[in-house]
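Hello Y.,

Per our agreement to keep a running log of every chain we model this quarter, I'm adding this entry. I've kept the format consistent with earlier entries: sequence first, then predicted structure.
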Amino acid sequence: MSGFYSRSKELSRSRKSQSESPPASPSPTSKTLRHERFSRLDSGSTNPSSGDSYSEHSAARTNAYARREARLASLSTMEEDLSKNYRKLYEEALSENEKLKGRLQEAQQQLSNIKAQLQKTTQKSERLGDKSAMLEVERKEKRALERKMSEMEEELKNLHQVKQVQMLKQLNERLVSENRALTRVIARLSGSTEPPETEDL
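Predicted structure for the entry above:
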């Protein structure tokens, strides 16, 4: 019993001496790690390169989007202008068609007048068949009127078709040229308006 009491007393004394002893000094490795950690924290707080890089990246992305919007707006304006040009060409074609219709009506009216005059000449020739001199004059006049009538009929056949074909050919060439130009512009703008690749922050 006395032996157990003496061991307990020694153990209590040993624990007391350990609690009262000063703390052990840190090892050199622990000091080095703690110094590196503080150095990184200090450099991170004093060096604004990370914040500047984010600001520059954000500004570059904003500028890219702004340029893209400007190009899209320019493309929309060009499409509106081309639509106006097509509408103008269509109106010009309608106006030219109306002019051709007017000329056709005038030619038809002239042809009707020539036919009426020819009929009168024929009737007059029949009444004056006994007068050879007058008959010869009337024959010449009749032949001239017939020749003019044939020319007018031929002109009426070709006038509308030729003018219409020429007008449509010119209009088609202009539309093809403008369509090619628009296709090149759209292809160029479509290739340059893709958003830049950005790194995830």
